[in-house]
Design a protein that fits this description.
single chain; 119 residues; mainly alpha; Helicase, Ruva Protein, domain 3; two-stranded antiparallel sheet; 7 helices; 61% helix; SP1917_dom_sf; DUF2200 domain-containing protein; UCP033199
């Protein structure tokens, strides 16, 4: 499935603060920790705990979130399907970055070892 322009716009305008609690719930429900979630977010974006909390408090959109991020050089190694979309086929850079994060959270919740998640 290829994301539509409307889908890409919706992803850009969605706030990180609105999705973050779902990430926490998802990983904790599967026996992982908030600290592990932060480790994954740090790896992908370069943000520390203080910056993550500031972005939540500021209710930034994913557009702003990823504009401030320094994406890990190995992020492009994140492949597979998330929410029906093959990551490697997404041509919108922002939508792809959001799906990278979704995929990492999914892998964490599925019990993958951190060394594998962080490529």
């Amino acid at each position: 499935m290829i994301p539509t322009p409307e889908h890409n716009e919706r992803m850009a305008k969605m706030t990180f603060a609105s999705v973050y609690p779902h990430y926490v719930t998802k990983v904790e429900r599967k026996g992982r920790t908030k600290e592990e979630l932060h480790e994954v977010i740090k790896w992908l974006t370069g943000f520390d705990d203080v910056k993550i909390q500031a972005l939540i408090d500021e209710k930034v959109t994913f557009e702003v979130f990823f504009a401030q991020a320094k994406l890990h050089p190995k992020a492009e190694l994140i492949t597979g399907t998330i929410c029906g979309y093959k990551i490697q086929e997404i041509d919108n850079p922002l939508t792809k970055q959001v799906r990278y994060l979704d995929k990492l959270v999914d892998e964490l919740a599925k019990g993958k070892k951190m060394e594998k998640i962080l490529r």
